[in-house]
Design goal:
By secondary structure, the protein is mostly beta strands. Helix content is 11%, strand content 55%.
Length: 181
């Protein structure tokens, strides 16, 4: 995942599901090397054809979601309901090798979630203090055919007004030892 200025994103003219040309890839590498774009996360997965690969990065945050109130004859108690929120990025991909063994069909599901920290809380009359998280989610699901080794834009999600988060994926056909098929 790469964070880049919106202007650079427009200059590179990358869209969801598009395979990056050599010129676009070079422009992205120059932007990262020059500091105008940054790599938020670089994950790697190795899978066989039609095998599902899942790469994620981020953090889980515990939130007090609710209080289960139990009332007895002369007593009252509350049990906290605590949930975990995941903030970060997830790429889920399944690759199929084309008949010519030089292209791949990728079933991609890319998701990004940001959580405003610190998590705000509010008081309720019945349940006490509850957490009120503010999450922003974006994502895309697609099927795209690309040449082996070519980068493809798996998802575009805004991280703030000036910067955009672009999720890239690359799949490469690796021949087994000895060239057997």
């Amino acid at each position: 995942m790469v964070d880049m200025p919106v202007a650079l994103h427009r200059e590179l003219a990358v869209g969801k599901g598009a395979a990056l040309s050599d010129q676009q890839t070079e422009g992205l590498h120059r932007a990262i090397a020059g500091g105008s774009a940054s790599v938020a996360f670089a994950g790697r997965a190795l899978g066989l054809a039609r095998q599902r690969c899942y790469v994620s990065h981020g953090a889980q945050h515990a939130v007090l979601d609710d209080m289960d109130v139990e009332v007895a004859q002369s007593a009252r108690t509350s049990d906290p309901v605590i949930n975990a929120l995941f903030a970060g990025g997830v790429v889920d991909v399944r690759a199929s090798i084309g008949g010519d063994r030089s292209s791949l069909t990728l079933d991609l599901d890319a998701r990004n979630a940001t959580l405003d920290l610190p998590i705000r809380s509010r008081e309720t009359e019945e349940n006490g203090v509850l957490d009120m998280p503010n999450m922003n989610r974006s994502g895309t699901r697609m099927t795209v055919t690309v040449p082996s080794g070519r980068w493809v834009v798996a998802g575009i999600g805004s991280s703030n007004g000036d910067e955009i988060r672009v999720t890239l994926a690359r799949a490469t056909v690796v021949e087994p030892k000895g060239g057997a098929r």
